[in-house]
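ugh ok fine here u go
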Amino acid sequence: MAELPSGLLEACVVIGASSDKLREIYQLHQHGNSKELPLLEAEVLQVHAPPFVSKETSSSQAIGPAFSRVQRRRSFIKKKKRDRPVDDPVNGESATNAEASSTNDDISVPKDLDLIALPQLCFPGGLQLATEQKEDSYHFLVFTDLFGNRTHGVVVQHHRSVQLSHESSAQNGSIQRRNSLRLYAPFAICIISKFPYYNALRDCLSCLLAQLRLGRQSEFEETVKEVSAKLSLVPLPPPGQLHVSFSLRPLQIVLPSREAQDRPVIDINLHLPLLCFTDAMLLQVLSCLLQEEKVVLFSSDWARLTLVAESLLLYLQPLSWQQPYVPVLAKGMLDFLMAPTAFLMGCHVSHIEEVAAETDDLILVNLDDGSIQTSWAEQMVLPCIPLAAAECFASRTESLQLHYDLELCHAGAGTDANERRAHRRDWQHRLNTQIQNIALELVLNIFRDVQDYLNYEHRVFNSEEFLRTREPGEQTFYKTVLDTHIFHSFLRDRLNRKIDAYSRMEINTRNSAPRNRVMTDSPRRPPMSELSRSGYSGPEHRLSRRLGASLPNLDQSPADSMKALNSHRLASLRKITPDTGLKFNQKPVKVFRLPEFPPPLAYHYVQNYYQDMVVSLGKAISATPPDDSSLLARYHYLRGLVNTVSNKRLDALEDFQSLYKTDAEIFPPQMVKALVDSLPASERAQAEKRPELKHFISRIKRDQERERSRSDNNDEEGAIKRFKLPKKHMHLEEFVKCVQESGMVKDQDTIHSLFDALTVGQQKQVGPDLFRVFYTIWKETEAEAQEVCLPASVLEHLEPSECVFKLSSSVKTSRGVGKIAMTQRRLFLLTDGRPGYVEVAQYRDIEDVKVSSAPLMLLRIPSLKLRVRGRKDAFEANLKTEAELWNLMVKEMRAGRSMADLHKDPQYMQQALTNALLMDAVVGSLQSNKAIYAASKLSHFDRIRTEVPMMVPQTTAEVLKHKINPSLELTTPHAVDVLLYTPGQLWVSVSGGKVMVFDASTWSITHTCLQVGTARLNCMLEVDSDQVWMGSEDSVIYIITVATMVCNRQLTEHRTEVTGLTLGTDKYSQKVAYSCSAEGNVMLWDLATLQVRKQFRLSCDRLLSVCNHNGGLWCCSKDSIMEVWRNGSLKHRMSLPEQLKGAGSAFSSILLLPELEELWSVCMDSGEVCVWHIKDATRPYHRVELQDCSGCFCMIRVKNQVWIGGVARSSPKGKVYILDAERHLVLKELHGHADRVTALCSAEDRYALSGAGKLDGKVAIWKVRGMHFVRTSVPESLSLWGRRLNSGRTLGMKAGSLSLVDVPGMKRSSFHPGPGSGPG
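structure:
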């Protein structure tokens, strides 16, 4: 049987001196022969570890089972003499007990528990006898195995008197004499757990000691064993809002859960480092840890060492310490400090001088006085944490309330100890949460820009560029940190796009500038306003990794930029509180109280205990509101865990199935895999008879296969590369990869053009020398642009977001002498001498660009001549050898601006800017007579402008507002599969389950590449304000929580791909959801419980969609449209019209217009729209022929219009047709996509949005309000509708418009009366 999950306790170990040695010392002491009490060697005396009994063990033979798991165990031979006399037991034990102990020297130990070093760690200062009773002392241990897995221990040292049993019968006088010479021997009890429940386990030991004091010494072992067995029965709480509590008299003990799956258990007081250090000292310690120095903590309190060390490592989350970690070093382990690697260790403060003298490369941190020093110098000079991050951290921590006594000023003296402990626990939890957020913000401020230098496809981190953009004073710090193991692990998580607390805070704390940016990439060339202010390249202006390396946000308005800048300045002045900007929605914590432990811990009593726990959890599930799915998931997790350990496997699988649907984030795949593998044949047969369980088990197996195949690629997924220049010749494929890894350009088409440019007149391969020269020139041009410092008199003419990308040499122009500067918006002349600004032209105003020649004495010098709209005189610059290059660049920028204006797509301008910069680098690297010709290969937009007329129909230009590119983060365009608008957000699904989320107020991307499964998404539905459902080709409905943008819940009842989703109401007017799948299954979902209320199957060829109307359902398949009653019975079926049958055509979309009692349908291979009457659906009563349309794929209603997305017959370009819903007339044809229109949605009837296939891959945003159609001056009083004329035409008139339409083909002719026409 597979090993089942651990409980709270892994083992309980008792350690002390051997009875032989104690007897010897005691006798010497009684006779006065021992002047000083020697240090004794500690030994393992007892080991208690689960399982305590098995099913076959009777109650008289053992204490009872903890978790009924089967473990291989090994021996631990105690080091003690076997010839111990049995007539002189120590500590009052009977001769029988002593004999039994002597014959049981071979102690059984769990296979993964190493006890060799435990005695030293339990007595780090040595085992010292005492002549008087001492207080109990606690400290904490951390054990790390070879694989980096940590186990935690809590130790209590307790003193007991040492005496020989036969002396108790002596006279009173001798007893008084013995009392004056009494000895006390310490023993240690260590509870070992896989989780750091330090406070809870300390409370458990306190309760254990209370029981030991009340009992007899002969009952010592049985008492320890009984408490150990009880603790092993305690299940661990799942991540989230549910804690677990249990009673271990006299205390009620609480096990706090992890806040999230990616967060660690926190059961310590995180503010201890803040009490030990000043803010500056604490930041210095954290800086040393980030740089992986050899850090040694010192304190006179052993407990303080571990608690502070654990807190420091928690401050660094999500960075995980990868180096050796031993927070408590015993006196005999100081040689560990000679380790050659970085480490974090702790020693007693009495060794600080000895350690400093013996080693010369340590950071010595004294917790008692809060000081830091090095072992090699009196003053420590180490790189500090970046100033801005440090100041923010210090400002927040200053306002923390760290003293609990201040919390109690208004409170009275409580009489209930457990109530006081609960109050303190709540206060500590709030404080810990504040400290966690502050520490996470510190890490975020240090590493926020790292993601901008990552290439996710090739798993490359451009560390050179990242370092170059850091402040000079921070260079040393970052250079050291970037080479550490701790940063490498962090980087791997970023490249894997891990959604953790760091990434969630990064999204939540973005300021307005990054939120409004369209490009989400590396900051290479900041705007001039930033350069002039500080020279710092902040996160506000980032590169397009897909298009170019040096691109700002071209869409950001000047007002937005100045607002962001001013808010940043004001933020540095106002007082920051611990929660400013860090308050996130936190659900209230629930505590599940375990039943009382069974008195005799025998097998059947333990099974009853588990059954009581299952019953209690069942009651908790019933009492939890269905909409609190998060809490329900935690209860299902706990009940599944309890059913697992009590061998109720099928019940456990049902709970885990509910968990899988309710919150997949905390679903334990390994545990469930072990559970499925352990099913005996009889139970497996029962599971096969239950369809839901059978499907769940098959899905678990599929997930296992997928995980196994993914693990085969683990090395590739875990690898992180630093960009390096090539060392061999590269063909096209290698060249594309190298350029993308460098971060210069990401778009494959652009890189192909660059390859053609660099290989003009030679073999189609790029040599390493040529690439190195090209890359160097690219970087030098960037650096030169960043070094430009413009005076305020020049900056006032530029927009705040503008960047200077290229400067010419100083030349003579028709408007003075100076350097021509190129930004993304304009050309201007930076005059020599005192720098001044002379406007040359904005790109959209340039009418003509050509290379001319200017006379200079007897010579003709090449010059660049520009003719600008609205100016009489042309601008001419004597650029000499640069003239041809500037001619190419300016033409490309002009063409890019023209394309961007025509298509309302700023990406054209960004692409043109990238092309221009690449031209510059190509000419500089080739240095030949073919350089200009080679650079012309990159003149993409200018070539289009010359060869193809850049005409956008007037109708399209009037309606088109903007375009966005969801594939910006990807190397090639991807088809838009689904569009969904929710209030304030636009959801765009592209191939492979990737979802991009845009801010609907600015149309800027807010969430990049949410991964929802791995298959294509077919449909999306906003169920309520907090969740979005997504139907996938992998047959799963994924539920996204809008607040966190995390997919925690999955509905897995469908067997084939989910194709449609819709909302409706049941017969009780309760909101429900319907889903359909390709094979014809339709399911009705209870939104509260996420359970299937009803399902039925329709006979059809690929069911495509489902919609709800008037208590029934309309379902569209490829071959028919069906109206279905709620119970699943078919009301009637509408087949393809006769003229479409046999042509391979199929329905693609339907649209219900209830108030008109109409249903519209379109086909994927036809340009005809069929209008059906709902009450008489035998055949379509009206048809509309769409001109130049070979197929339609989607359809929506916007106000009184119907928008249809299709593809043209004459070309592969996409078209959007706008039809009048009442008159069935084509109002407009919109040409906005280079590929067929695959998705449509409406944004509050203000905008309509269309998405196109992979040849285009963009989303067009169309204006709905204020649309102007061809109208006449005929008054509304003469409105006519549907009057059939004798000629077979229909005269349509409404709201003053008059149209004459041929009915069969719906060809429209409009009458336009003259301005003087009257009503007649």
